[in-house]
Amino acid sequence: MQDQSDTAPEAEIDDRPLWTSLRRGFRGRCPHCGRGRLLHSYLKVQDRCATCGEVYRHHRADDGPAYLTILFVGHLIAPLLLVVFEIYRPDPMVLFSIFAVGCLALSLYLLPRLKGAVVAFQWARRMHGFENAT
């Protein structure tokens, strides 16, 4: 017969669904309730959710969102750059201009969304101070 204390950590982790939290964080919403805003400016995380009161000030996103942005943008733009160059052979300055604007736009779009997803991941997995939060 299994002791209840053995299953308690599993129950704690399961009460915070990872994929739901990641979707909410990517949309810039509270990973707990899905209604409050996670970010109060471009990259600044709220101290707490205005709707449910979840505390975020102890998150540790650090360089994770920037690294993920570089990873995603690089893996999307590099093959596209090669295909466009091989098929159309545009003037190098035209190619540079189009892809520089594309990289910048995609990076600016993804960075706050990935920061929200990283904070939501930490919340869902009870990392960096989120283990004691409700």
Automatic annotation (TrEMBL):
<keyword id="KW-0862">Zinc</keyword>
<keyword id="KW-0472">Membrane</keyword>
<keyword id="KW-1133">Transmembrane helix</keyword>
<keyword id="KW-0479">Metal-binding</keyword>
<keyword id="KW-0812">Transmembrane</keyword>
<feature type="transmembrane region" description="Helical">
    <location>
        <begin position="66"/>
        <end position="88"/>
    </location>
</feature>
<feature type="transmembrane region" description="Helical">
    <location>
        <begin position="94"/>
        <end position="111"/>
    </location>
</feature>
<dbReference type="Pfam" id="PF06170">
    <property type="entry name" value="DUF983"/>
</dbReference>
<protein>
    <submittedName>
        <fullName>Zinc-finger protein</fullName>
    </submittedName>
</protein>
<keyword id="KW-0863">Zinc-finger</keyword>
<dbReference type="InterPro" id="IPR009325">
    <property type="entry name" value="DUF983"/>
</dbReference>
<dbReference type="GO" id="GO:0008270">
    <property type="term" value="F:zinc ion binding"/>
</dbReference>
